[in-house]
User: Fold 6-carboxy-5,6,7,8-tetrahydropterin synthase from Methylacidimicrobium tartarophylax.
Amino acid sequence: MRVTIEKDFRFEAAQQLPGFPEGHKCRRLHGHSFEVRVAIEGEVDPATGILYDHARISRAVEPLLTELDHRFLNEIPGLENPTIESMAHWFWERLVPLLPGLAQITICETPRVRCLYRGPTSSPARS
Ligand SMILES: Nc1nc2c(c(=O)[nH]1)N=C([C@H](O)[C@H](O)COP(=O)(O)OP(=O)(O)OP(=O)(O)O)CN2
Ligand SMILES: [Zn+2]
Assistant:
């Protein structure tokens, strides 16, 4: 049986978006409560009844959240222009070696806007 497991995480951080026009509100220093949703796709192991323990997702994601939480994102290598698009890519690059079956990263910066990213495929998920 093929399934998708999703797990959600949150962090708070400050940003400025240098790609926006001079005088635009997004160039000013401001912050968001970001939500990160990590999706894993794969086959359920009939012996265990799970794809793999979703605690593994937390173990992979939490060090990244520690790196970003209550930081100025523009100072983080790779996030000099911290749009939700570049943040989704940043998380994908770091998680794809750790999480077999990584299928999608979603970054929400407000309750009504999010970026969904599916990067180059990882190895298949195994429990
Ligand atoms: N494609 C993107 N567009 C925008 C991004 C982004 O990362 N990718 N980011 C921003 C800013 O971070 C901005 O701070 C977002 O907040 P805001 O514009 O207030 O968002 P709202 O959902 O409240 O939308 P409004 O239409 O401005 O009310 C902007 N754009
Ligand atoms: Zn913003």
User: Anything to note?
Assistant: The chain has a mean pLDDT of 96. The helical segments are 55-68, 84-95. The chain has one domain: 2-18+31-112. The pocket of LPXRUNBV (ligand 1) is lined by residues 17, 26, 30, 83-85, 109-110, 112-113 (CB under 6 Å).
